[in-house]
Structure formats: C-alpha cells, structure tokens
C-alpha cells in the first residue's frame, strides 16, 4: 500500500486517544484525523486557551488536558487527571517537541530538547501505562526525526550539555533517545501481548517546529518539506493500521524520506544498540523518578 492516506484509517469509534502538542502542526492534524474517524481525542497541551481553540476547530469528540512536558510536576498532574478520567487508553501519541532551540533548560534543569522530547514523554508514558496495558490493541506512538542520524549520540558524560552546547547535536541526541526508548519499551511490552510501541518521523514538515532553523536554511527546507497533514500520516498509520507491528518505524516513502506517503523505514544502527537502550532507560528512570512496572 504505497499511498496510505487518512481514508485508510479504520473506524476509531469507542477509542480514546491522547495526543501531546495537539494544538498545532503535526499534533493538530493527527488529532483532527482521529476525531474525524470517531475517536475520543484528548489534546494534551501546555496552553489551555490554544488547546480549546484547536478543539473548537477540530470539532467532534475532543477534550483538552493541561500538560507541560518541561515540568515533571505538570506531567504527574496531567497523568493523574487522565487516569481519573479514563479507565482505559487506546492510543498515546508522544508528538510534542522542540527543535534546534537556543541553550535552555526545563523547569527541572534538563537540557530543553532532551528534557522535552525524551524525558517528558518517557515520564508521561510510564505514568499512563497502567491505563494502556489492560486495553487490547492499545499503542504508544512516539515521534522521532530524520535528525536522529545527524551528530547523534547519547552523551552520558554530559547529558544536559552543561560543558558545551550544539543545538543540532542536542536535537540528534533527543530524537535518537525517542527511538531507543521505543525499542526498549516494545521489548518490555511484548510479553503482555496487549500494547505495542512504534516510532515515526514526519520527514520535512512545514510546522512551527522549524522556527529555530537558521535563516539561510529556510529556502532549502521549503524545497523538501511537505504539509503538516502529510507529515502526520506516518503517525496516523502507526496508530491505526491493523498491520502495524511492535517496534516498527514509519516515515515518508519519498526521496531521502523527506516527503511522501508512510511506509516502514529503517533507523540508524545506533538506535538498535540494546545495551544503549537499556542504559538510557535506567538513566531516564533515575532522572525522572518514574519507574516502569516490571
């Protein structure tokens, strides 16, 4: 199926989907498509006013929850609220993120890209897992990036970039971490048989995420980027296609995976390093104080 589109999304009636960063860009398009197919969609967003505006524009069965991925306190509060609302969660889509930001930290002192893109979603997933595991066919979909290949490594000797800072390499670390997390999570979920974990990347998508691109790169990026609606297709396929397997990675099928329709793609050899996955997992539990159930 080389041209999978939103028309291929199965009926989502009766399913509950949580989408982080859903008030704009890829998250908005993801939430919009799921709601259009009948899902109850929760827009998990930092700014409630923007979330409510997005919910109005989407229509359908959509609610809003406050979530600031730069704050572990906010993540815990959001998880508590969501667990009080829902006995079961069918889809958790870890979509929110930042890219190539100037050096900054989260409220807990983590480097902003690593803290938001990886640690925030690691904590949220761990805290919500008890609502996913009982639901047959539930999924955790985490958005990575082509950037997981660019200057990418896990710098355990300086995870928070305190000695030096390269915003491209810091983004590469965070997006590599998304994949390492997904693959280790899938290994841990496999024996349950109810929940799967998959990863995706949107190619080059024209969203607010690109606002920190250097000016000289903007013209070149515009040549290879695609709409947010197209960029959301890998996420939507990983979240809804019945043929998806745990541990798969979806991205665009076009040249350089920068644009096109979603298909299974390959991630870097480093992302499949089991020892690296397990070491990052242990460090992430220690940093967030979120310990996953065995």
Automatic annotation (TrEMBL):
Keyword Oxidoreductase: yes
Organism whose genome encodes this protein: Mycolicibacterium madagascariense
Gene Ontology molecular function: oxidoreductase activity
The organism's place on the tree of life at top rank: Bacteria
Gene3D superfamilies (alphabetical): NAD(P)-binding Rossmann-like Domain (3.40.50.720)
Listed name of the protein: Short-chain dehydrogenase
Keywords: Oxidoreductase
UniProt-listed InterPro entries: NAD(P)-bd_dom_sf, SDR_fam
Classification of source organism: Bacteria, Bacillati, Actinomycetota, Actinomycetes, Mycobacteriales
Pfam families: adh_short
Family: Belongs to the short-chain dehydrogenases/reductases (SDR) family.
